[in-house]
Structures are given as structure tokens and as C-alpha cells.
Amino acid sequence: MATSGLGILARAFSTSARCNKLVQTPVQVYGLSGSYASALYSAASKQKSLDSVEKDLKSVKELWEKDTKFRDFFADPTENANRKKTAFQSVVNKLSYSKVTQNLFDTMADNGRLSRLTDVINLYLELMSAHRGEVICKVTTAKALDANTSKELNGILEGFLQKGQKLHLQTEVDPSLVGGMTVTIGDKFIDMSLKSKIKHYTGILKSASI
User: Fold this and answer.
1) How far apart are CA 168 and CA 1, in angstroms?
2) Superkingdom of the source (predicted)?
3) Whole-number mean pLDDT of the chain?
4) Using 50, 70 and 90 to split pLDDT, how confident is the model at 93?
């Protein structure tokens, strides 16, 4: 059911065999949520509405994060799918979302997948960043970076980019790291946290005491 629903989403605005082909995404995204995001990207690309769909999804994400009743209702697997679809259509009509966005919500509601909505949104936003030539870099530190450190880090990370690419830096705080940082850029992950070093040397000490 879910697979056929994705096909409907991808073909929503296609009338010929040629148009039925999925538009190639700028990067690969995986899993069921990745399939929805890829199909959405393809449909939006054909309708020249990539940016408007991105705007719609950012609006939904903000609502999802701020309104707990809204989020809990649509994330509840025991809630009736038709009720969810009707409720989401009401939100869509009120906020005047694009037809492509509406088709995504309808397809996910029909297949009982609205609980995955934020995953699909985040993957679509990732596709749009890649579409603009941005390279997403996630930096997690034990405490928030000050302006000077953030600027210095940004300059260092830009040195890893290829010509024409732009850095899109995302920072998070995780006190459990104790100190240092972890960096994810593209498909590379670097762990420079004090937590990791403590774990490493604790393992060495335990081995030495045996």
C-alpha cells in the first residue's frame, strides 16, 4: 500500500511515460521516509515548486514542534486514518499550501505514515540544501560556541569544501560530551569529544588491570 502511494505522489502531475520518471535527487536519502522525500522532490521539481514546498514543510515542522496536541494527534498510531486526513486537510486549506504538499499529506495519511512526517520533512530539507550546493555540517559541543570560536570553526570547515559548495553549519549542545566536539560533514564523522577520550583510556586501564 505504501509503495503504491509513493508512486501516486510521484506521478501526481505527470501525464506521459516520460514525465512519470522520477527526477534524480541531488543526494541519496534512504528508508521509507527517504522514499517519500525523494518522491516529493521529484513531484515538486516537475511543478517548479521546490521552494514553495520547502516553505510549506518548514511551516508544518514549526507547528509540529510547538503544538504538542497537534503532534500527538497525528503521531498516535491508534487514531483513525480518515480523521487524521480530514484534520490535516483542514490545516492545509487554512494555510494555503501547494498542491504538491497536499498530495504528500494525503498519501501519508492514507497509508498511516503521518508519524514519520518530521523525518520526511527533514530529509526533504536536506535534499534542498544539496540542491543549492550546500554541504550540511553538524557540530555538537558540550557547551554553546561563542561568536569568535564559531567563526573560526566555520572558516576551518569551509576549507574541506569543493569549488561551488557552500557550508551550512548546524550546531547542537550536548553536555554529556564533557568537552571537545563531534563533527559530521557529508558522510564523514569525527569524534573529538572528551567523553570519547575518557571512554578510550578507561578501556585501556581496565585491560591493563586484568
Assistant:
1) 36
2) Eukaryota
3) 83
4) confident
Cα 6 to Cα 13: distance, rounded to the nearest angstrom: 13
The H or E element spanning position 140 is strand 134-141
Q: Per-residue pLDDT tens for 121-143?
A: 999 998 998 899 888 888 999 99
CA distance 6 to 72: 24
Query: Is residue 183 a contact partner of residue 199, using CB atoms and an 8 Å limit?
Result: no
pLDDT tens digits, residue range 180-198? 899 988 778 888 888 888 8
Q: C-alpha grid cell for residue 128?
A: 534542498
Which whole-number Å values give the CA distances from 68 to 71, 104, 193, in the listed order?
A: 5, 22, 33
Q: What is residue 173's three-state secondary structure?
A: strand
Residue with cell 486537510: 89
Nearest to 102 by CA among 116, 115, 91: 91
- The structural domains of the chain, with segments of one domain joined by +, span 2-129, 133-209
Q: Is the dihedral of CA 129, 5, 32, 11 positive or negative?
A: negative
pLDDT value, residue 26: 87
Residues in the chain: 210
pTM over 0.70: no
CATH number of 2-129: 1.10.520.20
